[in-house]
Design a protein that fits this description.
Order of helices and strands: EHEHHEHEHHEHH
Strand order of the largest sheet: 2-3-1-4-5
Number of strands: 5
Shape: globular
Structural class: alpha/beta
Distance between the termini: 20 Å
Radius of gyration: 15 Å
Number of helices: 8
Helix content: 40-55%
């Protein structure tokens, strides 16, 4: 990963498919930077949660209000924030950037086998493991013009957080 210039205000979007570790990595990065962490799943309207809980993939029409809410959270935290959100398609990230154009994107990825294993081991999450395949099919990896940090999740969470902070050149900010 090539280091990125540090953002003026760290607004970080941790993205990836279900079970990639968005919340775990996002919470650790936020903690190290002494920033608030927001799980994008908490911003879903109840109707979206019920659809996913029932194994029904969301449509783009379901997602637009949720993505706007994610973008507003990123924009409204004037001192910075870390948000976990799947943001699987370029159009979804573009929707978020309408609100927070300077957002730093961190894409967590792993092999389908690793992600499926993690998804099946999770308990109490509304996203059933059977929807992972549709998320993998939907995923559009950030393009070069999105200047995203892309990191593999097949290593310890602390190593992933270190790599993210190094790539965003934020280690000095966080006081690790």
């Amino acid at each position: 990963m090539t280091p990125h210039p540090p953002p003026v205000v760290p607004r970080i979007l941790v993205m990836g498919v279900s079970a990639s570790g968005k919340s775990t990595v996002g919470e650790l990065v936020a903690q190290r930077l002494d920033l608030p962490f927001v799980d994008g799943d908490d911003l879903h309207p109840e109707a979206n949660v019920e659809k996913m809980r029932s194994g029904i993939p969301l449509t783009d029409e379901d997602r637009w209000p949720w993505l706007d809410a994610v973008g507003r959270v990123l924009q409204e935290h004037e001192h910075g924030v870390v948000v976990a959100c799947s943001a699987l398609r370029r159009s979804y990230r573009d929707r978020i950037r309408r609100h927070a154009p300077e957002v730093c994107i961190v894409h967590l990825h792993g092999t389908p086998e690793l992600l499926a294993s993690r998804a099946s081991d999770r308990e109490g999450h509304f996203m059933p493991p059977r929807l992972l395949e549709s998320q993998i099919e939907t995923l559009e990896v950030p393009g070069d013009d999105e200047d995203a940090v892309i990191t593999n999740v097949a290593r310890p969470v602390t190593d992933i957080a270190d790599a993210v902070l190094d790539a965003l050149d934020l280690n000095a900010v966080g006081g690790r």
